[in-house]
Design brief:
This protein is mostly beta strands. It contains three helices and 18 strands. It has helices at residues 45-49, 56-67, 120-134; strands at residues 26-31, 37-42, 92-98, 101-107, 113-116, 138-139, 145-155, 173-181, 184-187, 191-207, 212-216, 221-225, 230-251, 257-279, 284-288, 296-306, 309-316, 328-337. The radius of gyration is 30 Å and the shape is elongated.
Amino acid sequence: MKSVFTTLLMLFGSLAWAAPESLKADSLVILFGNKTRLVIHSNDKEGIRQLSNYDINKIIRDMGMKLDSAKAGETFIVIDENRVQRYLQDTVLIVTQRDGEVSVTIKESDDRRYERSDSDSDWSSRNHNRRRKKDNWELGAEGGGIGLNSLVEKSTNPNYPAESYRLKPLGSRYISLALSQMPTIARSQHVGFKLYYGIEVSWNNYMFENDVIAQKGADGIVFSDAGRDLKKSKLTVCSVNLPVVPRLSFYNSSGRKMGHLGFGGYAGYRVDSYTKIKEQDNNKERQHSNFYLNDFRYGLIAHIGIARTNFFIKYDLNPMFQDNKGPNVRALSFGIGL
């Protein structure tokens, strides 16, 4: 820390931008043996008393390392209470020098950054845009994903042996796009409670292992033998879903996200379903029908995150097909977020 480091914090107690000095103002001056001064200025004594809420050692340590590259002279650090509630272990003030100009960035634990330069109006405009962007809906960033599908048999049906609709594990793919929001409900230093919700469009593809074709019969779905070799045969179900998932996010002491865990549910409606077969000569045939599928669906969702990577598991609680119109199976999907 240079001897020219004369002022680290300004208006620390009141946390107001560029408040004018008055006769009631108080200052706390700490003199070090190397002629370095630490001046903490407040509008009243109460502001000085509130210093116990702040990690002064961390402020001095972080700022001391950064100010070595700044120009000689006084540097004023001003904190706005509307943007920074308190300076804790997960908050860092960063002073940088570029083209002879010293700027200050306040980095909070949720990776939001607020910058202070020579123009206060520019600073306010940038932060207004950040807050407005946070309120926007996000497309695919959280709720969308790609993965695989499986069918969980709840009970056997002699009319639908499991062999007749066995799936190819890697060919039965799940794809979804979502328009979502995830506001923070409550937050501590290491844990944040958030609520994910939105609207989602999903495609569940069920590719059959054997050369069978799913058809709508008179009394239920029929998985009939194609009688020839097929390159591909699958059943696709498209649904619009409304997921709601409470989530806990976990952070380390520096504010970096370590992971998250969420459990919730969803309800959806089938908007389309069709079969698609691909012949050996690459000719394709598609047939649209409801195939006695249940129009409404509902189930459970789990979100598991490592750092910023999100994994999901979805399980339908209601049967995939109408009663006695198909096998008694539930859809299970899992994968990674987009």
